[in-house]
Write a structure and sequence with these properties.
The chain is built from 14 helices and seven strands. The chain has 337 residues and is of the alpha/beta class. The N and C termini lie far apart (49 Å).
Length: 337
């Protein structure tokens, strides 16, 4: 294994295991540094012990480089492989096999950690036929949300990458904030140009039940919205965060009536909606989207977490929109506008 490959693999495994971002970036920065050197320079510095004189290389990353140059599997890599195994699901294996893509993820244009092309290639390597880039909208400034001009610039980047990566396809999209009055945080002319739009609540999560219900139903009624993202806003790890209060029966009935999908968010700290609400969404006749909400390449492997919940709750595969061929998926999203 080449040093860059070893460093990038470790970063990927740390992402998959939800490691702190500074640990991930230490290995990605070291990989970038080594990539810019000639092989002879890397070998020379490893031999004379000057790797750590380079920017972005510390003791741990230098050890990985040195062991890889010696033809060994770096010990740090061996530990990472053991500590962060790939998610698997026995119950949801059939659903996972049926999924053709992932409709919710982020790049370093907003709060993700990797460029669009790196995320896209990782999605392709997962066996996906398509992958939607859904960076945040402008009001979410903490996540560097994209205003209209940045979205339009991003469309040009995606167009070029789709030419290079065909037949794999990057779908254009955005995760738009649902504002307090239920309006959508992006210009309509921009939303008209996107393949997939996810609407999510990111602020005022503790507003009263009636107001939150009205807020979510109003968002679903937007002709630009296709998927309701992580509907309760809960967090179930660390200090956690309780579910938002809303009339789930009414919200899901609206989603079904308007032919919009409810997301199963696969992030381990979310796993949203909880099972009781997922079953209610199914009872109301909602379509489902199973998405990773990945912010890094390694997180694109999180689909089994959602597939397992879908299987446990009896989600029919034909109701899962990202199990459909891309033309059928895009015909569905286009029908909303």
């Amino acid at each position: 294994m080449e040093p860059v490959e070893a460093l990038e693999r470790i970063a990927y495994l740390l992402e998959r295991g939800r490691a702190e971002s500074h640990r991930v970036m230490a290995f990605r920065h070291a990989a970038d540094t080594v990539r810019d050197l000639t092989p002879d320079e890397v070998t020379r510095r490893a031999a004379n012990g000057t790797l750590q004189d380079l920017p972005g290389i510390g003791a741990k990353t230098a050890a990985v480089i040195t062991e890889a140059l010696a033809g060994k599997t770096p010990s740090y890599l061996e530990r990472a492989e053991a500590e962060h195994p790939a998610p698997t699901t026995e119950a949801g294996a059939g659903i996972r096999a049926a999924l053709r893509g992932d409709l919710h993820s982020h790049s370093d244009w907003s709060d993700g950690g990797s460029p669009i092309d790196v995320m896209a290639r990782a999605a392709r390597d997962q066996g996906h036929e398509y992958w939607a880039l859904t960076d945040h909208s402008p009001r979410l400034t903490v996540a560097h949300g994209l205003d209209a001009d940045r979205v339009l610039a991003q469309l040009d980047v995606i167009d070029e990458l789709n030419t290079a990566l065909a037949p794999f396809r990057i779908l254009t999209g955005q995760e738009v904030d649902i504002l307090e009055d239920g309006s959508i945080d992006q210009r309509e002319d921009v939303l008209d140009r996107l393949d997939v739009v996810i609407a999510s609540v990111h602020s005022k999560l503790r507003m009263d039940e009636r107001a939150m219900t009205q807020r979510m139903v109003a968002a679903l009624a937007s002709p630009h919205v296709d998927i309701l993202g992580h509907c309760t806003g809960r967090l179930i790890v660390g200090r956690g965060r309780p579910e938002s209060s809303f009339d789930a029966e009414l919200v899901f009935a609206a989603a079904a009536h308007l032919d919009k999908a409810v997301e199963i968010n696969c992030r381990p700290e979310r796993l949203d909606p909880p099972r009781r609400l997922l079953r209610l969404a199914l009872d109301q006749g909602c379509k489902i989207s199973i998405d990773t909400d990945a912010h890094a390449p390694g997180q694109l492997e999180w689909l089994p977490y959602g597939c397992e919940r879908a299987a446990e709750c009896g989600v029919p595969i034909d109701s899962i929109v990202n199990s459909w061929p891309v033309d059928d998926l895009l015909a569905w999203t286009a029908s909303h506008s």
